[in-house]
Amino acid sequence: MTVLLQLIASFIGTISFAIVFDTPKKYYLYCGIIGSIGWGIYLVVLHLTDSLLIATFVSALSLIYMAREASFGLRAPVTIFLICGIFCLVPGLGVYQFAYEFFVGDSLHAAVVLVKVIQIAIAIALGITFGYELPPQCFFAYRHRKKLER
């Protein structure tokens, strides 16, 4: 039941971010689905590996794949789907905890939290980078569009 609630929350949160990001209304549902699936992949990989970094990397890689697939299929910029979808993976709580610990004066704990936040940010960046490097031929929507254009 907890997983289902998390998926619903990620769907709603992603759509909410799409509204704030001023995404066109016709893409809200796609953004929500991509964000929710990305969070689901994160939860599954985290359960299987118990590694926050691997789960974040795999989820970011799958998010960029889905964003590019949607981009090719809907003929829209990939950033619409990626920025909204990646919202759930961003370590906002970690940044808050770092700032809190830093200003309270617990420098040691702040440093530990900061290292974890940086690791997560690097895992997200690497996942996105590897996903962007995939050639267009790897995407179903791209191949399908090319067949229709012939």
Q: Helices, strands, pairings?
A:
Blueprint lengths: L1 H19 L7 H22 L2 H23 L3 H8 L6 H13 L2 H26 L7 H10 L1
Helix pairs in contact: 1-2, 1-4, 2-3, 2-4, 3-4, 3-6, 3-7, 5-6
Can you tag this structure with a few keywords?
single chain; 150 residues; 7 helices
Mean pLDDT over the residues: 91
Low-confidence stretches: none
Portion in helices: over 70%
Strand content: under 5%
The secondary structure category is mainly alpha
Order of helices and strands: HHHHHHH
Shape: elongated
Can you describe this structure in just a few lines?
The chain is mainly alpha-helical and 150 residues long. Helices cover 81% and strands 0% of the residues. The mean pLDDT is 91.
Structure, explained:
With 150 residues, the protein is mainly alpha-helical. The protein is built from 7 helices and no strands. The N and C termini lie far apart (48 Å).
